[in-house]
Design a protein that fits this description.
This protein is α+β, with helices and mostly antiparallel strands and 90 residues long. The chain contains 2 helices and 5 strands. The radius of gyration is 24 Å and the shape is rod-shaped. A 5-stranded antiparallel sheet has the order 4-3-2-1-5, with no helix packed on it. The longest helix is centred in the last third of the chain and has 18 residues. β1 and β2 form a beta hairpin. α1 runs antiparallel to α2.
């Protein structure tokens, strides 16, 4: 709701599943098959950096799975790769 888009040369705000209000006033039904031009910023804009603690937690979960999946003989090499990764993100 509230997303801005252009349809048939008019700027609208989404007000419901199939409805929108124009900036000039008035409401209209927008068909599901309509071709719209989004006026919203891309999803990646405005998002800050990932929090280091969240990245480390996700990576450690991934790493634990990797340890279970690789043979014992490869654990030392896997640990070295882990250390390189952690150093790279610091």
């Amino acid at each position: 709701m509230g997303a801005r888009f252009e349809y048939e040369g008019v700027v609208y705000f989404k007000t419901g599943p199939l409805t929108a209000s124009s900036e000039a006033g008035g409401q209209r039904i927008i068909p599901r098959h309509a071709v719209l031009r989004s006026l919203e910023a891309p999803a990646t804009e405005g998002k800050g950096r990932l929090e280091g603690a969240a990245v480390r937690k996700a990576f450690n979960n991934f790493f634990e799975t990797c340890q279970r999946l690789v043979g014992e003989a490869d654990h030392a090499e896997l640990e070295q790769a882990r250390q390189r990764f952690l150093k790279a993100i610091d």
